[in-house]
C-alpha cells in the first residue's frame, strides 16, 4: 500500500508522515478500487503492489510479499488513513483527523500574514462579514415570524458569531462557514407547531434544549464511528446538484428582493398619492442592487486590465465587494428621502422572547425543564423529552449532509488545497459544542452554509489563466490561503455588529441583494452541470466548448445525463419552495438518496450510458 493515495471526496489527502511534502505538492496518485464505491461501474482497476526484486537468495522478495499480504489483510495504521476511509476502530477516523491537522495548527494562523497574504485575508474578512450579516438578519426575521418571537434576529446573529468563534479554533476545515440556512428554517417551524399541537402548548425553548441534546448525541456517534466515510458514495453528480441548488437559491433570493419593491402597497402603478414615491423607491432600489452586482463583477475582473499599477489592480480586485457596498450605500444616503428599505438591526442586546404577561425579556439561559410561571407554557414531560429524539434525528441528518457536502465541495481536487480535510473532527465540534450551546441559550442551530463557504474559499484563491490542449483559455487555481484568521475575524465582526446598529442600518437591503447575486453567480463556474446546461443553447455541436467530457461522450448520452441530473435538481428546488414545512423537512432525506438514485438509474438504462460515459461525466 503506498504512503499517499487519492480517495473519492478528498483528493488532497497526504499521509501524516509526509505533511511537509504535502504543503508543497498536492497528492496526485490514483485511488484503489476498494475505496471507490463506483469502481465496478467506472471500470477502475485496483493498483498492484510492486514486488521487491530478489537480489540474492530470493528470501527478500518472498518476505516482502508475505509482509505486504499480511498488511493488506490487517488494519491500516491510523496515520495512513484517508479523510473518508473507514478505520475499523473506535474513533479511528477522528484520531486520524487529529494526527493530520494538529501538526498544521500553527501554520493555520501564521499563513494569513506570510507570503504577501495579509491583503487577501483582510479583504476576505470585510467581504464575508457583509455576506454573513445579511443572511443572519434575514433568517432571524423569518424565525421570529414562524415561532411567535421565540427566536429572532439577535439570537441568529449571536448564534452565527458564536459558532464561528468555536469553529475557527477547533474545526478541521476552517474555510467552511457555519450559519443559518434555508433548509434548516423548516425544522424550527415544524418543531414549534409540534409543541403547540393538540392544545399542549409545550415550552418551545425548553423542548429545543432536549432536541439539541439528542441531535448532539447523534452527531457525536456519527463522528466516533467514522460514519462520515459514507460520503464516499457522493460523487460529482450529488456534489454539483447541491452546489447548483444553493447558488440558485441565492440568485432567486436576490431578484425576489428587487421584485418586492414593485409589489409595495399602494401599487406603484395605482392612483394613490403614495404611488409616485413607491415608483421612485422601486427604481432607485433596482439600480442600487444591480449596480452593486455589476461593480463587484467589474472589480473581480480588474486584474486582467492594463490600467494602473499591479498593486492598485490587486487592491481593487480584493476589496471590490466591500467598495461596492460602501459606494452604493453612500449613494442611497444621498437619496435618503426616497426611503429605500435598509437593514433592520436590533437596538438592544436582549433575547427576543418575553416573560409571560410582563413584557420583559427572558433570561439568556434556558431551563430544559421549563418554567410555567415565567414562560406561560407547559414544561416538557418525560414522554415529550424522548419524542424530541425524532425531530432531532432529522436535524442531525441535515447537519451531517450540510457539513459533509459543503466540505467535500471545498476539498475538491481542482481547488488545489494542500492541507487534508477532517470530516469527523468537524462533526464532533458541532456535536460537543455548537448544538448544546445553541439549545441551552435559545439560539437557532447553525450548519455549514455552502455559498458563504464557497465565497470564503474563492476570496482566498489565486487563479491563473492557461491554454488547454484544445486551444481554449481556462482558469486554474494556483494557490489558496488556508488559514483560520479570516474565519475568526469574520465572526468577531459579526458579534461586534450588535453594537453598530446605528451604522449598519444605513445599508440598503437591495445593496446586500446585489452581493447575494454576486455570490450565487460566482459560485457557478466550474460546476459541470451548469456548463452542460449551456450546451442546450448551442445547436451546432461543432461549436461546443471542448471540455473533456464533450470529447469523450456522445451527444445523446451527454444531454440525457444532463436532463437526469437537472430533474433531480428541480425536485430539490421544489421541496425548498413548498409552503408546508412538514413536506420541506423531506429535503435532507432526498439529498441522502441522491447517491442511490445516481447508482440505480443508469443501471436501469444500460443502453443509454456506458461505463466509459459515466466515468467521463462523473469522475
UniProtKB/TrEMBL annotation:
<keyword id="KW-0812">Transmembrane</keyword>
<feature type="region of interest" description="Disordered">
    <location>
        <begin position="1"/>
        <end position="76"/>
    </location>
</feature>
<dbReference type="GO" id="GO:0005886">
    <property type="term" value="C:plasma membrane"/>
</dbReference>
<feature type="transmembrane region" description="Helical">
    <location>
        <begin position="209"/>
        <end position="229"/>
    </location>
</feature>
<dbReference type="GO" id="GO:0015701">
    <property type="term" value="P:bicarbonate transport"/>
</dbReference>
<feature type="transmembrane region" description="Helical">
    <location>
        <begin position="422"/>
        <end position="445"/>
    </location>
</feature>
<feature type="transmembrane region" description="Helical">
    <location>
        <begin position="381"/>
        <end position="401"/>
    </location>
</feature>
<dbReference type="GO" id="GO:0005452">
    <property type="term" value="F:solute:inorganic anion antiporter activity"/>
</dbReference>
<feature type="transmembrane region" description="Helical">
    <location>
        <begin position="511"/>
        <end position="530"/>
    </location>
</feature>
<keyword id="KW-0472">Membrane</keyword>
<feature type="transmembrane region" description="Helical">
    <location>
        <begin position="558"/>
        <end position="575"/>
    </location>
</feature>
<keyword id="KW-1133">Transmembrane helix</keyword>
<dbReference type="InterPro" id="IPR011531">
    <property type="entry name" value="HCO3_transpt-like_TM_dom"/>
</dbReference>
<feature type="domain" description="Bicarbonate transporter-like transmembrane">
    <location>
        <begin position="89"/>
        <end position="264"/>
    </location>
</feature>
<dbReference type="InterPro" id="IPR003020">
    <property type="entry name" value="HCO3_transpt_euk"/>
</dbReference>
<protein>
    <recommendedName>
        <fullName>Bicarbonate transporter-like transmembrane domain-containing protein</fullName>
    </recommendedName>
</protein>
<feature type="transmembrane region" description="Helical">
    <location>
        <begin position="582"/>
        <end position="601"/>
    </location>
</feature>
<feature type="transmembrane region" description="Helical">
    <location>
        <begin position="241"/>
        <end position="263"/>
    </location>
</feature>
<dbReference type="GO" id="GO:0006820">
    <property type="term" value="P:monoatomic anion transport"/>
</dbReference>
<dbReference type="Pfam" id="PF00955">
    <property type="entry name" value="HCO3_cotransp"/>
</dbReference>
<feature type="transmembrane region" description="Helical">
    <location>
        <begin position="315"/>
        <end position="335"/>
    </location>
</feature>
<feature type="domain" description="Bicarbonate transporter-like transmembrane">
    <location>
        <begin position="276"/>
        <end position="618"/>
    </location>
</feature>
<feature type="transmembrane region" description="Helical">
    <location>
        <begin position="283"/>
        <end position="303"/>
    </location>
</feature>
<feature type="transmembrane region" description="Helical">
    <location>
        <begin position="485"/>
        <end position="504"/>
    </location>
</feature>
<feature type="transmembrane region" description="Helical">
    <location>
        <begin position="125"/>
        <end position="144"/>
    </location>
</feature>
<dbReference type="GO" id="GO:0050801">
    <property type="term" value="P:monoatomic ion homeostasis"/>
</dbReference>
Amino acid at each position: 500500500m503506498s504512503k499517499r493515495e487519492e480517495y473519492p471526496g478528498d483528493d488532497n489527502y497526504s499521509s501524516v508522515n509526509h505533511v511537509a511534502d504535502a504543503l508543497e505538492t498536492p497528492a496526485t496518485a490514483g485511488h484503489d478500487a476498494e475505496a471507490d464505491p463506483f469502481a465496478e461501474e467506472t471500470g477502475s482497476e485496483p493498483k498492484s503492489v510492486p514486488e521487491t526484486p530478489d537480489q540474492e537468495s530470493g528470501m527478500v522478495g518472498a518476505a516482502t510479499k508475505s509482509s505486504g499480504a499480511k498488511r493488506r489483510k490487517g488494519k491500516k495504521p491510523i496515520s495512513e488513513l484517508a479523510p473518508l476511509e473507514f478505520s475499523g476502530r473506535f474513533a479511528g477516523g477522528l484520531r486520524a483527523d487529529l494526527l493530520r491537522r494538529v501538526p498544521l495548527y500553527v501554520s493555520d494562523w501564521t499563513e494569513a500574514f506570510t507570503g504577501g497574504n495579509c491583503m487577501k485575508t483582510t479583504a476576505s474578512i470585510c467581504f464575508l462579514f457583509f455576506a454573513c450579516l445579511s443572511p443572519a438578519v434575514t433568517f432571524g426575521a423569518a424565525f421570529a415570524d414562524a415561532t411567535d418571537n421565540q427566536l429572532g434576529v439577535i439570537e441568529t446573529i449571536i448564534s452565527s458569531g458564536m459558532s464561528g468563534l468555536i469553529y475557527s479554533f477547533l474545526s478541521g476545515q476552517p474555510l467552511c462557514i457555519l450559519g443559518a440556512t434555508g433548509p434548516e428554517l423548516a425544522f424550527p417551524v415544524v418543531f414549534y407547531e409540534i409543541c403547540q399541537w393538540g392544545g399542549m402548548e409545550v415550552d418551545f425553548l425548553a423542548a429545543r434544549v432536549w432536541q439539541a441534546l439528542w441531535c448532539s448525541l447523534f452527531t457525536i456517534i456519527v463522528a466516533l464511528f467514522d460514519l462520515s466515510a459514507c460520503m464516499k458514495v457522493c460523487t460529482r453528480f450529488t456534489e454539483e446538484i447541491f452546489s447548483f441548488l444553493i447558488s440558485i437559491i441565492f440568485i432567486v433570493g436576490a431578484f425576489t428582493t428587487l421584485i418586492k419593491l414593485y409589489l409595495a402597497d399602494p401599487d406603484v402603478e395605482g392612483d394613490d398619492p403614495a404611488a409616485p414615491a413607491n415608483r421612485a423607491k422601486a427604481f432607485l432600489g433596482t439600480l442600487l442592487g444591480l449596480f452593486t452586482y455589476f461593480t463587484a463583477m467589474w472589480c473581480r475582473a480588474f486584474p486582467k486590465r492594463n490600467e494602473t499599477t499591479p498593486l492598485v489592480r490587486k487592491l481593487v480586485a480584493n476589496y471590490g465587494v466591500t467598495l461596492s457596498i460602501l459606494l452604493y450605500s453612500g449613494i442611497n444616503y444621498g437619496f435618503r428621502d426616497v426611503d429605500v428599505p435598509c437593514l433592520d438591526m436590533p437596538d438592544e442586546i436582549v433575547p427576543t422572547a418575553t416573560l409571560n404577561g410582563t413584557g420583559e425579556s427572558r433570561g439568556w439561559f434556558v431551563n430544559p425543564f421549563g418554567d410555567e410561571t415565567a414562560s406561560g407554557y407547559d414544561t416538557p414531560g418525560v414522554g415529550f423529552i424522548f419524542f424530541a429524539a425524532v425531530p432531532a434525528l432529522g436535524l442531525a441528518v441535515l447537519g451531517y449532509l450540510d457539513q459533509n457536502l459543503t466540505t467535500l465541495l471545498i476539498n475538491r481536487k481542482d481547488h488545489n488545497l494542500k492541507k487534508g480535510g477532517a470530516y469527523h473532527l468537524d462533526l464532533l465540534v458541532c456535536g460537543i459544542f455548537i448544538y448544546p450551546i445553541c439549545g441551552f441559550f435559545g439560539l437557532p442551530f447553525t450548519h455549514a452554509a455552502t455559498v458563504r463557504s464557497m465565497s470564503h474559499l474563492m476570496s482566498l484563491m489565486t487563479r491563473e489563466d492557461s491554454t488547454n490542449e484544445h486551444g481554449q483559455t481556462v482558469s486554474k487555481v494556483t494557490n489558496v490561503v488556508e488559514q483560520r484568521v479570516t474565519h475568526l475575524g469574520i465572526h468577531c465582526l459579526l458579534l461586534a455588529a450588535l453594537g453598530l446598529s446605528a451604522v449598519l442600518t444605513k445599508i440598503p437591503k437591495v445593496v446586500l441583494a446585489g452581493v447575494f447575486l454576486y455570490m450565487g453567480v460566482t459560485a457557478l463556474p466550474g460546476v459541470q452541470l451548469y456548463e452542460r446546461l449551456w450546451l442546450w443553447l448551442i445547436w451546432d455541436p461543432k461549436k461546443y466548448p471542448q471540455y473533456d467530457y464533450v470529447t469523450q461522450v456522445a451527444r445523446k448520452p451527454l444531454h440525457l445525463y444532463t436532463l437526469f441530473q437537472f430533474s433531480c435538481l428541480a425536485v430539490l428546488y421544489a421541496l425548498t419552495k413548498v409552503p408546508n414545512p412538514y413536506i420541506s423537512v423531506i429535503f435532507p432525506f432526498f439529498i441522502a438518496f441522491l447517491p442511490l438514485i445516481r447508482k440505480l438509474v443508469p443501471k436501469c438504462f444500460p443502453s443509454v450510458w456506458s461505463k466509459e460515459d459515466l466515468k467521463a461525466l462523473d469522475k
